[in-house]
Amino acid sequence: MMGRTLVIGGARSGKSAYAKALAESVAEHRVFIATAEPIDLEMEERIARHRADRDRTWSTVEEPVELIDAIAAHASSDRSVLVDCLTLWLSNLLHRGRDVESAAGGLVSGLTSLQGHVILVSNEVGLGLVPDNPAGRVFRDAQGRLNQDVAAVCDRVYLVTAGLPLLLKG
Amino acid sequence: MMGRTLVIGGARSGKSAYAKALAESVAEHRVFIATAEPIDLEMEERIARHRADRDRTWSTVEEPVELIDAIAAHASSDRSVLVDCLTLWLSNLLHRGRDVESAAGGLVSGLTSLQGHVILVSNEVGLGLVPDNPAGRVFRDAQGRLNQDVAAVCDRVYLVTAGLPLLLKG
Amino acid sequence: MMGRTLVIGGARSGKSAYAKALAESVAEHRVFIATAEPIDLEMEERIARHRADRDRTWSTVEEPVELIDAIAAHASSDRSVLVDCLTLWLSNLLHRGRDVESAAGGLVSGLTSLQGHVILVSNEVGLGLVPDNPAGRVFRDAQGRLNQDVAAVCDRVYLVTAGLPLLLKG
Lengths: 170, 170, 170
Hints:
3 copies of one chain form a homotrimer. By secondary structure, chain A is an alpha/beta fold. The first copy, chain A, has helices at residues 15-26, 41-52, 67-74, 86-95, 100-112, 134-152; strands at 4-9, 29-34, 58-62, 79-84, 117-123, 156-161, 164-169. Helices cover 44% and strands 25% of the residues of chain A.
């Protein structure tokens, strides 16, 4: 179970819980990299609820933008690093006007040179109708490309539906 | 093929037809529990069309809210009970201001104590962009949690795409 | 690998690239049937980008509406025909007020009488919330039925997520 794992799923699919269980199965020390920013009450409550779900074998790092730096700073062969999630990270990049293609390229190349267990959670958002607004289409396209690029450098990829993982690669 | 089966799919994925075929393969007597309410012409036509698809080996029960009571009243080892679908049931609960968490808990615990073949149809709705409006997000979250909770107590779970079932559990 | 193949996926799922690789693996001569119409700049750029991805072993045919005629005119046992995609074709039919059911029926019956490798790309659009507007619901329903009908006459059906194919049939 060494290496990089991508866990893809929809909203409330159980992807985070599955990724957490994976992270706990591979190492006794775990680092949770949260990309969420507490910009409103709904998000604050969600972050607090997720934090309460993790016990003391976990340490939590908040990093909304410089993701590969945070992963590289914590990855090592005796612990697992869980990134939750790439979708909020992408959203943070777009809101700040960052160059998404360049950031995604940096993440992908950085991931391939790391040691240790890295588990990344991401949303699939492309299975509805075409969004009405251009910003929605830009986000959807960027998320789809990011999932493809990260999946290509992962050893295992799971699609989670109703809490049930389906192995797509590995 | 005894036990509980969840059939998940998108809109017009063929999930209802697949669930119906499953129900017909396990028992000669079948009960269809319809959660749809004919609130408009579009829905009335859909209900009539679905009813016309079922022959006389089926009896139909309409129950928009008190779902586990309807299932319990009809489940037995010599017949199959098909619930179509959990998504409309959830929508009915929310429109009435019912406590969804409590209703979902009652459904799940009730299901585990029943005898017979019970097949439940549900939508996956979490694979598009984040909905613009809070009500959409509430619905999406509730549907995702309900699917996870029901899947956890089912013996078999299928994901249907373009009429083709994929076994997720069982 | 003779016969008909349907490749289903979401937006930016990698479905087109996977279908292209399939088409290249089965025959040295390939015909690309593009259903896209360059109605705006966004679409023009996308079409040009896709065309640039294909080398000289490919010839390109643009046919937004009379799809089965275009397929029949090019299908033969020594080449592969790639249709990209059924979703834009469906959209073109609806915009022109064509009878979708009849056109879909013509496509399906035409496909079953052809020789050669035909690979069709289509979107899954039914895994989000119910669309707010009737036109969106009509499109989603028509796309779901079309995917079911085409899948039923294909020898192989794949669902592509993050560039990774999952065999649903075949």
